[in-house]
Specification:
It is built from two helices and 48 strands. By secondary structure, it is an all-beta fold. The strands form eleven sheets. The protein has a six-stranded mixed sheet, with no helix packed on it. It has a five-stranded antiparallel sheet with strand order 2-3-29-28-27, with no helix packed on it. It is elongated, with a radius of gyration of 31 Å. The protein starts with 15 loop residues before the first strand and ends with a strand.
Length: about 650
């Protein structure tokens, strides 16, 4: 219900949108299977090989048969093969423990690890973490203690300290390229929309991938040198360490072991996730953020100190692959498979999505790339892929597990899983119903019942006032998949209260698992009672030269309800009637008391015993949140006269 007209109103008030945030969760102990198209066809399985880890973020090797797992809290764990039947055994003691110097949580923590190509000779490894001040540190360690098999933290050498303006978009990937140089990924510094324009500015390392020679100058600060063939050496506008720019948060990149090409997964913001390819021998490319999000033109240059080249400029290198937030919402870059155990995957690039857990296999097709999802490889909380020394691939779940990609028998159907198709939805007050979609995937053999209910969020939307409480049952019969819909009823009130939110959850399900990444969604109710120029109507009075908009609504004992009808009396007063035009039920008057006490006054009286609610809005003070005087009358009670002599202080 509008108290006053809005000049510009969005056409679609019931749209559904994806969020750019990700949650961390896992389906513990779940073995997922997938069939990957290949020639010849080859079955695959995800075999759980490690569990009980604490927020693992990455896995790599040191050139031997061990694997090393990075835990966000600041520890590196080492696992060795268990003869003779295979599998991995996790060492009891951490290989390196930096928990006393790492700030962990969200996108912060111990984020990256790379072993020197000559690690077996020099014992050097490199880590990237968030220090206790919230800044990013690139450091070197060495000299594993032969008696304990752990790295002494005292061998610490700080190589880079990069101040982080915000808590997110820390990047953190480390990898040695085929040229023996160390590549370091840094996000744009965080917040949203890259407010500092870090990804496009050359005077900061944020929003870049760096290329460092860690052998040159290794014995004295800064313990690295800049390779002379770095693309921006000699350019006073760009830091010498920069290899490429224009990234938002490069969450995992890798080099193809055979070709040397660099594949970069860059996390998107509102719309697109992307994979970019930098062929061997190419450098200095600009991947486009924040002018571009994937191939989507954002045309933003705020904070850049001047205009940037337009979206269509050849200065920007487009991604080879991208997907929208209907498929996922935080890309996890992967690897080109070059192992021997799975010849059907040779030369194909595997990558995934943290938010949805989906996994795709990509391959060259003509002059471009195509991708196909492997739905039964879905891994909730997919934080990273990893490689062992032989080129075997692993998937790391933030929930605490590591899976190895194996060749397997014909897979059974994956378990039935349900979840919302979107994380967020928006709806205008005037839209009576918002349809919320739940999706079933996996095994179709059983009947599924999912119970859904609305949950008020403290301080926001109120059940019974802004929406009707939702308790619904979504049912899939055996053999049925796809989407089921439940309806949320929205109440069109007359209060100016700004936009409000509530949460809708899948409370329980029989016959299926509930995807922990998609078990709830947030609904924002967009308030349409925004003042503007007062427009009188059957239920809107405009008083004191249309400065004040007065509205009213009623309900009787039979639950019949509707807007009031108005009768202007004078410039400063008017009357409302409800059921009978011959019976004035409510009189409202706004008095100019500015000369008396510096306020406008509100006076009301009436005969009604109906339930009434309404408001008086000072439109002249409409900047931000305008002053609003709300009034109400309970059903069955005679209206009590109101005289508020300090209702509005907006004089003159």
């Amino acid at each position: 219900m509008r108290a006053a007209s809005r000049a510009d109103e969005e056409a679609d008030r019931g749209r559904v949108s994806r969020a750019t945030s990700a949650h961390s969760a896992t389906l513990a102990g779940l073995v997922l299977w997938a069939l990957v198209a290949s020639a010849p066809a080859q079955q695959l399985e995800l075999e759980p090989v490690l569990g009980g880890l604490q927020s693992p973020l990455y896995l790599t090797h040191a050139g031997d048969d061990r694997v090393f797992v990075v835990e966000r809290g600041g520890t590196i764990r080492v696992a060795s093969p268990a003869p003779p039947g295979g599998g991995l055994v996790l060492a009891t003691e951490p290989f390196l423990d930096l928990s006393d110097r790492v700030l962990a949580g969200g996108e912060r923590g111990l984020l990256g690890l790379a072993f020197h190509p000559d690690y077996q000779q020099n014992g050097r490894l490199f880590v990237y973490y968030t220090d206790l001040q919230g800044d990013s540190v690139l450091a070197r360690f060495e000299n594993v203690d032969p008696s304990s098999g752990v790295v002494p933290p005292s061998s610490f050498v700080e190589m880079l300290l990069v101040e982080q303006p915000f808590s997110n978009h820390n990047g953190g990937m480390l990898a040695f390229g085929p040229d023996g140089m160390l590549y370091v990924g840094l996000g744009d510094g965080g917040s949203g929309d890259d407010p500092l324009c870090a990804a496009q500015r050359g005077d900061t390392l944020l929003g870049k991938i760096l290329r460092l020679d860690v052998d040159g100058g290794a014995e004295s600060p800064p313990f690295y040198t800049v390779p002379p063939d770095n693309p921006f050496v000699g350019d006073p506008t760009v830091r010498d360490e920069v290899f490429l720019l224009g990234v938002r948060n490069p969450w995992r990149f890798s080099f193809d072991r055979l070709s040397g090409d660099l594949f970069v997964g860059d996390v998107g913001q509102d719309s697109r996730e992307e994979i970019s390819l930098v062929p061997l021998g190419t450098s200095g490319v600009n991947l486009g953020w924040k002018m571009l999000e994937g191939t989507l033109c954002r045309n933003q240059s705020g904070g850049c100190g001047g205009p940037l080249p337009p979206c269509g400029s050849s200065i920007y290198t487009p991604p080879i692959l991208e997907y929208g937030h209907g498929e996922g919402f935080s890309v996890t870059g992967g690897y080109v498979y070059r192992g021997d155990a799975l010849p059907g995957l040779a030369g194909r690039y595997l990558f995934g999505d943290f938010g949805s857990g989906r996994v795709w296999v990509a391959e060259r097709s003509g002059g471009g790339w195509t991708r196909s999802e492997r739905p039964q490889l879905r891994t909730p909380g997919l934080a990273s892929f990893g490689e062992d020394a032989a080129g075997g691939l692993y998937l790391v779940s933030l929930g605490g597990e590591v899976f190895a990609l194996r060749s397997g028998a014909t897979p059974p159907p994956p378990p039935a899983v349900i979840g919302f198709t979107a994380e967020r939805a928006e709806v205008g007050e005037e839209v009576p119903f918002l349809m919320l979609d739940l999706e079933r995937s996996g095994d179709l053999g059983e009947r599924i019942e999912a119970r859904v209910r609305s949950v008020p969020t403290a301080g926001t939307a109120t059940p019974g006032e802004d929406y009707e409480e939702l308790e619904a049952l979504a049912i899939w019969l055996p053999g049925a998949g796809g989407v089921r819909r439940v309806a949320l009823s929205v109440i069109d009130d007359v209060r100016i209260e700004n936009d409000e939110e509530l949460e809708v959850r899948i409370e329980s399900a029989t016959g299926a698992l509930v995807d922990p990444q998609r078990d709830r969604m947030t609904v924002r109710i967009l308030d349409d009672d925004v003042p503007g120029e007062c427009t009188p109507s059957l239920h809107v009075l405009c008083l004191l030269d249309s400065r004040f908009a007065v509205t009213a609504r009623w309900r009787d004992f039979t639950d019949l309800d509707g807007p009031a009808r108005t009768t202007p009396l004078t410039d400063d007063s008017g009357a409302f009637w409800f059921l009978d035009f011959r019976n004035i039920e409510l009189v409202v008057k706004v008095l100019d008391g500015c000369a008396i006490n510096g306020h406008f006054w509100v006076f009301m009286t009436g005969l009604t015993n109906l339930e009434v609610e309404g408001e008086v809005v000072d439109i002249a003070a409409a900047a931000g949140s305008p002053p609003v005087y709300s009034f109400s009358n309970p059903l069955g009670t005679g209206f009590q006269p109101i005289l508020d002599t300090e209702a509005f202080a907006g004089c003159p």
